[in-house]
Amino acid sequence: MDELTRLNAEMRLRGFSPMTIRNYTFFVRKFLENAGKPAAELDESDVRLFLANLVDTKSRSTLMLASASLKFFFNEILGKRIEGLPTPKREKKLPEVLTREEVQALLNAVKRKKSRLIISMLYSTGMRVSELVNLKVEDLNLSERSGWVRAGKGAKDRLFVLSDALAEELEQYLKERNKSNGYVFSDDKPLTPRNVQKIIKKARVKAGINKKVTPHTLRHSFATHLLEQGTDIRVIQTLLGHSSLTTTQIYTHISREQLKSVKNPLDVLLDLEKAKDSSQTEQMEQTEENTDNENLAAR
């Protein structure tokens, strides 16, 4: 059994998601091809050289994924402990978020019912694209306006909630196709994430949205709009399937609307001063009026 076969088998035994298995296998294969020597002769210096060659052309998130892939490969498959790899720091970027108007424009740009349902589902539930393409009819409870993501990230099931309108559209869609089981959005095999990305890209172009829009953008938008509506962040954490509240706090960054709604302390100070001046002016005017009235009465 070669190293890649052993790697694949070990990840499946540990319940890694299909996407993680693909990503880890990709980086380990590239590493072995570039190393050009037997796995038994590989060591940490080879890993460092491989990662160094990625620094100038790949994002930090890609470097982190490559590093994690190779660390798992060495530690768990080759039995060679490597602990000293530098971990590239995450880029601190605010996620791209659509406004409600942009989400509506995206939906309006789609004519095919299935494509519209896919976009609606991503925005309505905040699920990941890998979860959406594997969603099955059996996981839906349309009468309760809910459903289950089975073995989501971290191999955990979680509940999601559907809007009334989306539940009705899904019910009609499934009835038209006489589907009572199997994948919701495909037949024998699940859609690929790439299929979904193409649907969203086509809708974005047609809607004239000048932002990068991906399935994850809709997940960000779902979380941010809930936050703007005043939804408790712990509820959002549960809906997103985050094990850590810290992750949710980063993911659902403070929205622009919330930032704009914060009263600047200088404005508060000036408003108090204006109120004070206004009160003093009113008192002076009242005093003058009372004095005038007294003078008139004295005449």
Can you describe this structure?
α5 (100-108) packs antiparallel against α6 (113-125), α5 packs across α9 and α6 packs across α10. This protein has two domains: 3-78, DNA polymerase, domain 1; 100-257, Intergrase catalytic core (hpI Integrase, Chain A, Orthogonal Bundle). The chain is built from 14 helices and three strands. With 299 residues, it is mainly alpha-helical.
Give a brief rundown of this model.
The chain has 299 residues and is mostly helical.
Largest beta-sheet characterization: 3 strands, antiparallel
What form results from the Cα inertia axes? globular
CATH topology tier name of the largest domain:
hpI Integrase, Chain A
Radius of gyration: 29 Å
Quickly count the helices.
14
Number of domains as seen in the coordinates: 2
Which structural category fits the helices and strands? mainly alpha
Distance between the termini: 117 Å
Instruction: Give the oligomeric state of the chains in this entry, treating copies of one chain as homo and distinct chains as hetero.
Output: single chain
Number of E-type strands? 3
| CATH architectural label of the largest domain | Orthogonal Bundle
Q: Give the rounded overall mean pLDDT.
A: 83
Order of strands across the biggest sheet? Answer: 1-2-3
Helix/strand order: HHHHHHHEEEHHHHHHH
| CATH class type of the largest domain | Mainly Alpha
Strand-residue proportion: under 5%
User: CATH superfamily name of the largest domain?
Assistant: Intergrase catalytic core
| Helicity level | 55-70%
Spans of at least 5 consecutive residues with low confidence = none
